[in-house]
Design a protein that fits this description.
Jelly Rolls; about 0% helix; mainly beta; Immunoglobulin-like; about 300 residues
């Protein structure tokens, strides 16, 4: 695991800076605001808003960006956030001159951010479920666009029964949480017949803070994927990084192509050691099956 530091351009006056692709970064991000004093020692004398999006391409419309952090200090500050965000930009407002020159840099690990789009219906109803089982556990949903009514983001482990994970009531924004889901879908309710609008819903995902996409550290959280072996159901699994002890538990699921049989997977807690554990599928693996494990301390 390495650290990555990215500069986020700040406009010289009120307005939006260029969007920066931060998909190389992980979920734990520290935003540092620096200020070069003005000609008479002035501070930045403005408001700096950090905005995010998980769209495939950087959005052009302002209503497709969600707020993440705000700075109003004259001479610099920092904020540490946990977020899965592909695109980041700076919106500057309330500028007064003369002033100092603000700069924004974000530091993070190189775990990476993965995204997917969640389709929404044109009116009341539930959009098609999207298989997100290959996404890491820390997820941030961004909702943008011009729309009326409410947006509920649903999760499911079987594609049939769904539960509400996030609700955006009457407007967009962003929300984050750690969870594993095989499917996600968007439900709209309270949508007027006249001027329903259309929400744009995207999800970003990263490894958990303190862990990495390839296994993470030995003392915190780990997330990793094991390819299935055709016909094999019993899997002795070696942790990517040995842990200090066996005080952890394992959440697991199988990500299968649509043509494959849905399968469950369990971990026998009596097999857990500081170096690995044994998992068993309810049926032998088929081509394309991926076994997903999320390991965390207890």
């Amino acid at each position: 695991m390495a650290n990555i530091f990215l500069n986020i351009p700040v406009p010289a006056s009120d307005g939006n800076g260029a969007a920066v692709d931060c998909s190389s970064q992980g979920s734990l991000r520290t935003i540092v605001l620096g200020v070069t004093p003005g000609p008479s020692g002035e501070g930045m004398r403005c408001t700096i808003n950090i905005q995010i999006s998980n769209a495939a391409a950087a959005p052009v419309n302002d209503n497709e960006w969600a707020p993440l952090a705000t700075f109003q200090q004259d001479f610099g500050a920092d904020q540490t956030v946990t977020v899965a965000a592909k695109w980041v930009r700076v919106m500057r407002s309330n500028s007064r001159f003369p002033s100092g020159t603000p700069s924004v840099t974000i530091g993070s690990t190189d775990d990476g951010t993965f995204i997917d789009n969640l389709p929404a219906t044109a009116g009341n109803g539930t959009g098609a479920g999207v298989n997100v089982s290959a996404l890491p556990p820390w997820k941030t949903v961004t909702v943008g666009g011009a729309f009326n009514g409410n947006v509920n983001v649903l999760v499911s482990e079987d594609g049939t029964f769904y539960a509400t994970q996030f609700s955006f009531l009457g407007n967009g924004g962003q929300q984050s949480a750690a969870f594993m889901a095989k499917f996600m879908a968007v439900e709209r309710d309270g949508v007027p017949v006249i001027n329903p609008g259309q929400p744009i819903v995207n999800v970003g995902a990263c490894a958990m803070p303190g862990g990495g996409g390839g296994g993470g550290g030995g003392g915190g959280l780990q997330f990793f994927v094991v390819p299935g072996v055709v016909g094999q159901s019993l899997y002795p699994v070696t942790l990517p990084t040995a842990r200090a002890d066996a005080s952890y538990e394992v959440l697991s699921q199988v990500n299968s192509p649509a043509a494959n049989l849905d399968k469950g997977i369990t971990v026998d807690p009596t097999t857990i050691t500081n170096t690995g554990f044994t998992a068993e599928m309810t049926a032998g693996a088929e081509a394309g099956d991926l076994l997903i494990f999320f390991v965390h301390d207890i």
